[in-house]
Amino acid sequence: MKNIEHIGIAVKNLDDANELYTKLFGKPSYKTEVVESESVKTSFFKVGNNKIELLEAMDENGIIAKFIEKKGEGIHHIAFEVENINDEIKRLKDEGFVVLSDVPKQGADNKLVVFLHPKSSNGVLIELCQEII
């Protein structure tokens, strides 16, 4: 793993959250995007070398809606940038982690992504992401 790529925060209303985080960081989001496969709208902020991804559910049965219903708004996941996502999937499976998909899929911000089940990582949802070249 190379570094923390971003921290994902689940929010009920992306417009309201964008306004709040724009005030917090003193600058607007640099990118918004819809990820149809996950039924989410996202917004990204750059803070120094770090990124924050805000996630709003587009579907009341989607992953983010269920997360907010169960846990409320807040940190949803931590994403780590990897050199080769397929090698990392194999390595982490061999180490005993539960990977939620055998094949990475297209995520936001031009990334291939896959998630580790929180039950295998001390309750933290971990996202692996690799830049699509």
TrEMBL record:
This protein's record includes keyword Metal-binding: yes
Organism domain of life: Bacteria
Family matches, as PROSITE patterns: VOC (PS51819)
GO aspect biological process, one term: L-methylmalonyl-CoA metabolic process
GO molecular-function terms, A-Z: metal ion binding; methylmalonyl-CoA epimerase activity
InterPro entries: Glyas_Bleomycin-R_OHBP_Dase, MeMalonyl-CoA_epimerase, MMCE/EMCE_epimerase, VOC_core
SUPFAM superfamilies, per the entry: Glyoxalase/Bleomycin resistance protein/Dihydroxybiphenyl dioxygenase (SSF54593)
Ranges of residues in domain VOC: 3-131
Listed Pfam families: Glyoxalase_4
Coiled coil location: none
Family statement: Belongs to the methylmalonyl-CoA epimerase family.
Name of the protein this chain belongs to: Methylmalonyl-CoA epimerase
